[in-house]
Amino acid sequence: MTARPRVVIIGGGFAGLHAARALRRAPVDVVLIDRTNHHVFQPLLYQVANTSLAPSDIAAPIRWILRGQRNVTVLLGDVTGVDAASHTVLVAGEAPVPYDALIVATGSRHAYFGHEEWEAHAPGLKTLADALDMRQRMLLAFERAEWTSDEAERRALLTFVVVGGGPTGVELAGTLPEFARAALRPDFRRFDAGAARVVLIEGGPRLLAAFPEHVSARARRDLERLGVEVRTGVAVSAVSADGVTVAGELLAARTVFWAAGNAASPIGRMLDAPMDRAGRVLVGPDLAVPGHPEIFVAGDLAAIRWDDTRWVPGVAPAAMQMGRHAGRNAARQLQGALTRAFRYVNKGEMATIGRNRAVAVFGRRVALTGRPAWFFWLFVHIMYLVGFRNRLSVLLQWGYAYLTFQRGVRLLTPHDPARPAGGPA
After folding, report:
1. Does 106 have pLDDT greater than 60?
2. Active site residue 229
3. CA end-to-end span of the chain
4. Tally of structural domains, the chain
5. Which residues pair with 160 in a beta bridge?
6. Which of 46, 250, 282, 355 stands 20 to 30 A from 179 (CA)?
7. Can you state the angle between helices 316-334 and 14-22, rounded to 10 degrees?
8. Cβ neighbours for 53, distance < 8 A, ≥ 6 positions apart
9. DSSP letter string over 282-347?
10. Is 210 within the bounds of a domain?
11. Are 268 and 256 within one domain?
12. Helix (H, G, I), strand (E, B) or coil at 41
């Protein structure tokens, strides 16, 4: 019996999963390799960080998601390289995995613009581990504020700085004041948790730079009404255990969250391909690597133009579309057919800014703000979640939080690396 062609997919995120699903009926065998055993719904990671949701609400095992697709094998492994000459993927501690077509969908990580030492003091938000780290740091800040009798130290503990005014930064900053005032204020005796200070720093001239100016202005207004201090047009020059230095001023803060930029996965550098300044692979119109028609790149790792002035954004809907397209083109290429050019369909952009506040933009003219945008944001995120159980669980959690102002997941685990020395035992 002649062996069927093999398509290897690296990455089980939005692009990787949709690539695998696009190959459901193709006469190929699919091998999906990921360093974790689960798929994460990244747009809701910040809700794990702010204690609104549990990790299991926004994640599901990759094997379970693809359990009905008989031509897929899922492998847990850490990819260390790609040998384009021999058509093999190198995996730490395992035998090389051969491929006839390869789809690389390894996404991106947060970028510190050459200051990687800042990460220890300002974690980003890309994985469940990142979200749990953020949650621990935030909750421990309040716990330590209950212990200290030094007012200056307490002010620093109760100051939360978010760096980056994109959707992730805006969503993180917008949820913190409500959490402190409504959920934590009744629980502490030695200080007023509602007095927590939240500062959002954006180096550009305005928040949500990809949104129209009037929507950006509305987002800023909503944040300021929530009590967030918004600083735009200023750059962070240093991050340390003492806080953040902005425009020559040290802003004393013990908790800093980073949402200021992305760096492409290092696997892109292993593909013998042209890259942009952010490390993304400059793919051809069909998402294939120039000079390697059997290798496709999808998701945040791919750089491809949307039109003459814009690049396809690094958002979940774009990753899904690219994943599906890469999967179909891989099947066409293996069957000797012509591949097709990718066309991005913009389904809109959204960001939530706390309770009953959100912004949403569809095309160049249609925009929603306030409560209508907030309810639309809820509906879209529920629909995109994987699995009925996850949708039901998240719906119940959000309903409980909306009615009671309480958060369901406020546990501190004893063996967390983010736990600072000298805190309460």
Report:
1. yes
2. no
3. 64
4. 2
5. 198, 255
6. 250
7. 40
8. 44, 47, 394, 397, 408, 409
9. E--TTSEETTEEEEEE-GGGEE-BSSSS-BPPSSHHHHHHHHHHHHHHHHHHHTTPPP--------
10. yes
11. no
12. coil
Please say if the pLDDT value at position 137 is more than 80.
Answer: yes
Rounded Cα gap, residues 119 and 129, in angstroms? 14
Neighbours of 225 (CB within 10 A): 12
Token representation of residue 315: 């958002």
In single-letter form, the type of residue at position 122 comes to A
Residue 422 phi, psi (nearest 5): 90, 0
Q: Count CB-CB contacts under 10 A for residue 233.
A: 11
How far apart CA 304 and CA 276 sit, in angstroms, is: 10
Neighbours of 341 (CB within 10 A): 11
Residues 25-64 have pLDDT tens digits of 999 999 999 999 999 999 999 999 988 888 988 999 999 9
One domain, residues 85 and 158: no
Q: Which two tokens stand for residue 267?
A: 């696997």
Count of beta carbons in the 10 Å neighbourhood of residue 96: 14
For residue 295, what are the β-bridge partners? 102
The residue behind tokens 């031509």 is: 71
> Residues 171, 178, 294, 349: which is the catalytic one?
171
Q: Enter the tokens of residue 409.
A: 């997941």
Domain that holds residue 249: 116-260
- Enter the tokens of residue 180: 């402190």
Residue 222 and residue 174 in contact, taking contact as beta carbons nearer than 8 Å: yes
pLDDT tens by residue, 210-238: 888 999 999 999 999 999 999 999 999 99
